[in-house]
Amino acid sequence: VSVRRHLAQSLADHNRPNEAIEHYWRCFELTDDLNDKLPLVSAMTHLSVKTQRCDELLDKLRQLRRRHEAPKQLTLCVVEVLRVLKKYAEARRELTDLLATRPDDVDVLSQLADLSATTDDLSAAISYQQRIVDFNANRASLGALASYYVAKGETEEAAKVWGRIMAETGDDSSMMAAID
Fold this sequence. Notes:
Elements: H1 2-13, H2 17-30, H3 34-51, H4 54-67, H5 72-84, H6 88-101, H7 106-118, H8 122-135, H9 139-152, H10 155-169, H11 172-179
Helix pairs in contact: 1-2, 2-3, 3-5, 4-5, 5-6, 6-7, 7-8, 8-9, 9-10
């Protein structure tokens, strides 16, 4: 897969986007892990913009999703395409639909929180992030929640979250650095 990915990148660099997309697709098909698929989808999206074939890419991913028993991975790939294309409302709709079938999925909640923050819907970002904290109140999830509160101007709420982090970790110095 890495050799084919390198070939696809080389073809893209030499202004041969259609061939590059074909090789990226083959890598996509050979890869099982979502974290390996998303960069491939992102690369294909950027090339599809150049060749004006974004709709074709989305259609192909959606068609694969319809035939797949577990649509989460392919839905997240569709969301990645929409994110790159800056079609945030459509990406959010895809994630919301997925969340309806998987209400406790922390990955989906995290993507929704991030996407909500990207679109300056900080109330929604806080709501999704709070649900993540309810499932897994670790330093990272609490830190993200505090950041959303700060971005929204709710410094008292952010201070409460930071206080909770300091109380749970006992690490005042690194937390003070993060706050600054």
